[in-house]
Amino acid sequence: MRIGLAVVAGFVVGGATSPLQTVLPGAVNSLANSGAPWVLVAMALVYWTSVTGLTAAGLGFVLLAAEVVGYYAVSILRGFDQSVTYIVFWLVAALVFGTVGGYAAGLMRAGQPSRRLAGLAVPTAVLVGEGAYLATVNPPYGVGAVAVGVLVGAIGVARMGRTARQRLLAPLGMLVLSAIVFGGINAAGAAILAG
């Protein structure tokens, strides 16, 4: 039951994004025009369903794909032409980020602090990595996303880190993963601009 509701919620979130892109003002417009909110919604929904492991990874992909489908369905109903290339691009992104995000959400339900910290590294990196990129395009939103990501990571490490090693390695892992996300977003942006 929860999985079905989560898929519907993913579709609704994606569908709501299309009109929000035209009504949200400057500093918060990136909420409806960036990938991090979708990944975080998918992760929260996976966490809510209580699934873990490969089931969580698969569900993360399905939820992010539902967001993509919802977005394009509403955009088409609103009369906007859509490119098959962009649809395929975002479905591939859903496969990558949804699978990783879903698996990470499942890890956050683990009993061991090190596994929960590994799961927490993904939403932290998504916020910090995308925020760093968006700081060059929409500084208020980008800086805000970085700040929220750092805060989420710091609180998570403080609450879940049980040893000095965990408290040292978790932030380093989050920083490295943030750099990977930042690099991936830059590469994807260049690919989109190249056509």
What is the residue-mean pLDDT, rounded to a whole number? 91
Distance between the termini: 41 Å
Helix content: over 70%
Helical/strand content category: mainly alpha
Write the layout of secondary structure elements.
Layout: H1 2-23, H2 26-29, H3 35-49, H4 53-77, H5 84-107, H6 113-134, H7 139-160, H8 164-194
Brief write-up:
The protein has 195 residues and is an all-alpha fold.
Question: What structural keywords apply?
Answer:
mainly alpha, 195 residues, 85% helix, 2 domains
Polypeptide structure, described:
- With 195 residues, this protein is mainly alpha-helical.
- The protein has 2 domains: 1-109, no CATH class; 112-195.
- The chain has helices at 2-23, 26-29, 35-49, 53-77, 84-107, 113-134, 139-160, 164-194.
